[in-house]
Structure formats: C-alpha cells, structure tokens
C-alpha cells in the first residue's frame, strides 16, 4: 500500500510541477514545436535559433564587392558624415548627423587615382546573378566580386534602379554557385529573428543577428520607401548584403542605417525582398525599370482630415492635385478625393500608393475606389508610363555647385517634423570641397529662400541658380532641424 500511495503521490506532484507537460502542451505550444524544421534545426517563433547552421549554409553565397572609377567626376556623394560635419566632430556636431546615411559611396572627390568601394551582395541565381544596392556600384567603371572561397571575378552590370536602390550583377564562375532562395518579406512579423551577413569595414563574411523592429518604415529616401527596420548590427560595408529569416531565406537587402556617429546603434534598414523580386525581370531584360504613372499629387490623411471628410478611419491617399490631361484626370479623379483602393489593393496610407501604381503594367486599366462627398465611387484608370522626372539637379548643375536636391514633398516634411505645407527643396547630396560643401550645406537641409526670395520647388531653385550674377554669392535661407540659418553659396570659378 505504501508503494501504491507513493506512486500516486509522485504522479500528482508530476502533473503539478510540469513533469508531464510534454504530453499536455497547449495547442499553441504544439504548433510552436511543429514549426521546428529539419532544414534549419530551429524554431524561429518559439526558441533561440541556431545561427551556426544558417551561417555555415550560406557562407559561400554572400560576396564582397569592390568597385573602381578610373575617371572620377565631381559628383555629390554620401560617404562619411555629410550631414553632420566632419567625422572628427567638426562644425555641425552629432545633433545634425545624417539619420539616413548610406554605408559607402565612391571615394573622395576629384582624385586622379582609382576609387574603390567595399560593399556586399549575394548570389540569388546559380547562373551567377548577384543582387546588391545601386549605391554600392553607382558610377563604377569596374566591378570586382570576391567569393568567400577566395575566388575573384569581374562582374557585369546587368541592370540597376536608383529609385529603389537595387542593382543586379552577373559573373561567369568556374564552378557551380550556391544561390540563396527568396523568402516572403510581406509575411515577416515584428519580433521575428533575422540574421545579417556582409563585409562591414571590409571584414569578409561577418554575421550578426537581431529581430525585426518594424515594417513599412518611411525614411525620406524616395517615393518607394517601405523599409524593414532591424536591430541586427549592420555597419559600413554591409550594404547590399542579405537579411535572412530563420527558414534560411532572404527577406531583405541591407541598405542604410540611422546613426549619429556613422556606426551601428541598433537601427538599420533593409529593402523588402518582395520589392526587389518584382524588379528583377525588368532589370535582366532591359537594364532598367519602367513604372506605371497615374498623374496625381497626394498627401497623408490625418485624423482631422478623415473626420472632416466623414471617413471612419485615417486611411487612404488624399489627392492634392491632378496633372492636366493625365490618366487620373481622364479617369475622373478630382482634387479632394481620397483613394481607398487601387487595382484591388487597400491603400492604408499615402506611402502605399506610389508602389502600387508603379508595379502595374503600362496600358492596363485598373479599378480605383475613391471616397467623395461621403460615399465611395469606383473609377477605371488606364496606367501610363512614368517618364524620367526632373527630381534632382542636372549633372552639369551638380558638377558646378557640388550638390543635388529634390522637391520637398509633404511626406518628407512630416518625416522631418515640419509643416507638410512647407515649400522649398531638400538637399539630397553635398560634395566636400565644392561651393555647396564650403558653404556648410548638409544633406537633409531644406532650402527655403534664395537671395531673400522664397522658392516653392526645384524649378524655382534652378531659375535662381541660373540667374546669379557673375562673381556674386547666393544667400540661402536654410531650415535645419528646429531652426533656420543663412548660408552664402559662393559661385564656382567662372
């Protein structure tokens, strides 16, 4: 009897303390166990992953990229700390450092020696196709690829897309290459483990890990911002390398960092692989991307605007202007309409619309649902081709003054903490040692006036630069952070 009593006692204690929890796990626990795959030996959603297997698996698929430019032009670049003064803490200080600093650009301006740039990339097709960032190879005369095995190859530029910062390269390898498969970046969840592989500071094949911190980040890089934010440490040289999920699939291309010092502080951004995957067929076939266009200017729907228009939620894209004789005008879209769905896709915010429009085939007719006068209306819009725009200064103007600029959109204004109605242009690049660099202009500055005359857009800025008097400086009123400052832009040598 004592033995039986002892057994009963032990069974009761076992259930109470969880000895038999394996046989009584909850449905969620059972599902978590089933998520463990033989392929990775890890459970990305329920346990600390095994990064050893992932790094071993893809060590031969991540490449080191070096470029050469034998005849460098004086062009604005993003190397170092262009928005925050000198790397040694010169004028401007860290409070004005560039939050969207590119990892590496071409070497210093005006050099006669070849310029080299170290970045990363990864093989996505065993035929030798490599995916990287456009800014890693931009303006390069030669592109060199080094595999983890030590083999080196000259690469051919297949195609690039500056608007999304994506580029495709091709090498002719002696041996069969190992390609990393694409994952589903849309299915990524905040909090998931991810691993970044690249060549930070030229250190071949470095692996770091972290989680997905956020999705759909708009950081003012352009109309197609939709970045994955991660705290996986990434540094200069990681640019173009893969962000990998726990299934061993690429979910992003590491692209930029938020940093006051130029080093990692736990805030990095990656291009979603879904976006890059959609561009690859065009880049392979044509070397560039042709996008759809509808001909509207849009802005964010704030809670106040939503309430005034009778919308239950602050969703959609508010039409602020319609291009004359453009596709939108022909479809019947009006100023004040809120675009709710486009081609069957929900428009959650104004940031969603440019990407949805751009990926539609030219000439297709798509349904557009708008909110107008308190009710929905469905219109048919025919997609037109987006022409190359005048979004930055011409090469001649950039070469002359050493800066590039673009129109200040409401979205960029909001991201900088400014009134969305602010008019002007935002400086997107400054070359040290030029008129713009000597004047103290920094990437991210907003130019409001030229010679005490307000400028509303890039065309007005062009006009003011063109009408300058020989030998006379231009007085610029610049918004920087929460303050304004006057800067004198000296004319280049005439």
Structural commentary:
- The chain has 494 residues and is α+β, with helices and mostly antiparallel strands.
- The protein has four domains: 2-34, no CATH class; 47-288, Thrombin, subunit H (Beta Barrel), CATH 2.40.10.120; 292-385, PDZ domain (Pdz3 Domain); 395-489, Pdz3 Domain.
- It is built from twelve helices and 28 strands.
- It has helices at 2-17, 27-34, 51-58, 134-137, 273-286, 303-309, 327-331, 352-358, 395-401, 410-415, 435-439, 458-466, and strands spanning 62-69, 101-102, 115-125, 129-132, 142-146, 152-154, 156-161, 166-170, 193-198, 206-217, 227-230, 242-245, 250-257, 268-272, 292-293, 296-300, 317-322, 338-342, 345-346, 365-372, 375-382, 384-385, 403-407, 425-430, 446-450, 453-454, 474-480, 483-489.
- Strands 6-5-1-3-4-8-7 form a seven-stranded antiparallel β-sheet. The protein has a six-stranded antiparallel β-barrel with strand order 9-10-11-14-13-12.
- The longest helix is centred in the first third of the chain and has 16 residues, at 2-17.
- The protein is globular, with a radius of gyration of 26 Å.
- The N and C termini lie far apart (109 Å).
- The model is unreliable at 7-36, 38-42, 72-113 and 389-396 (pLDDT under 50).
Task: Tell me about the largest β-sheet.
Answer: 7 strands, antiparallel
CATH class designation of the largest domain? Mainly Beta
Helix content: 10-25%
Shape: globular
| Structural class estimated from helices and strands | alpha+beta
Low confidence ranges:
7-36, 38-42, 72-113, 389-396
Distance between the termini: 109 Å
| Radius of gyration over all CA atoms, rounded | 26 Å
């Amino acid at each position: 009897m004592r033995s039986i009593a002892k057994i009963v006692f032990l069974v009761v204690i076992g259930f109470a303390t969880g000895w038999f929890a394996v046989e009584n796990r909850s449905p969620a626990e059972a599902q978590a166990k089933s998520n463990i795959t033989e392929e990775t030996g890890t459970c990305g959603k329920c346990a600390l992953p095994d990064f050893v297997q992932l790094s071993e698996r893809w060590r031969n698929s991540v490449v080191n990229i070096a470029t050469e430019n034998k005849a460098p032009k004086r062009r604005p670049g993003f190397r170092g700390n262009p928005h925050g003064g000198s790397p040694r803490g010169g004028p401007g200080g860290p409070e004005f450092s560039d939050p969207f600093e590119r990892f590496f650009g071409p070497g210093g301006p005006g050099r006669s020696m070849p310029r080299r740039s170290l970045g990363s990339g990864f093989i996505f097709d065993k035929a030798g196709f490599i995916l990287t960032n456009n800014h890693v190879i931009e303006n390069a005369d030669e592109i060199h690829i080094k595999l983890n095995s030590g083999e080196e190859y000259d690469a051919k530029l297949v195609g690039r897309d500056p608007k999304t910062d994506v580029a495709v390269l091709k090498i002719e390898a002696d041996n069969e290459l190992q390609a990393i498969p694409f994952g589903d970046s849309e299915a990524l969840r905040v909090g998931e483990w991810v691993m970044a592989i690249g060549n930070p500071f030229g250190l071949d094949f470095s692996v770091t890990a972290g989680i997905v911190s956020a999705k759909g980040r708009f950081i003012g890089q352009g109309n197609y911002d939709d970045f994955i934010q991660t705290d996986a440490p990434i540094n200069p040289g990681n640019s173009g390398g893969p962000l990998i999920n726990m299934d061993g699939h690429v979910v992003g291309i590491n692209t930029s960092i938020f940093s006051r010092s130029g080093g990692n502080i736990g805030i990095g951004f990656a291009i979603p692989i879904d976006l890059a995957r959609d561009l690859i067929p065009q880049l392979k076939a044509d070397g560039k991307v042709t996008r759809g266009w509808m001909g509207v200017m849009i802005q964010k729907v704030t809670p106040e605007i939503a309430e005034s228009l009778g919308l239950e939620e602050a969703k959609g894209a508010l039409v602020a202007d319609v291009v004359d004789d453009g596709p939108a005008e022909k479809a019947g879209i009006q100023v004040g309409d809120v675009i709710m769905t486009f081609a069957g896709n929900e428009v959650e915010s104004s940031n969603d619309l440019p990407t949805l429009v751009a990926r539609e085939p030219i000439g297709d007719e798509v349904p557009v649902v708008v909110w107008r006068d308190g009710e929905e209306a469905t219109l048919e819009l025919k997609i037109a081709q987006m022409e190359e725009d005048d979004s930055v200064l011409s090469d001649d103007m950039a070469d002359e003054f050493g800066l590039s600029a673009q129109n200040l959109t409401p979205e960029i204004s909001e991201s900088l903490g400014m009134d969305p109605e602010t008019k002007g242009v935002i400086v997107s690049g400054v070359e040290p040692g030029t008129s713009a660099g000597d004047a103290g202009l920094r990437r991210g500055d907003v130019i409001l006036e030229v010679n005490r005359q307000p400028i509303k857009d890039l065309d007005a800025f062009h006009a003011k630069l063109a009408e300058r008097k020989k030998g006379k400086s231009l007085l610029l009123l610049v918004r920087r952070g929460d303050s304004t400052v006057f800067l004198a832009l000296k004319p280049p040598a005439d």
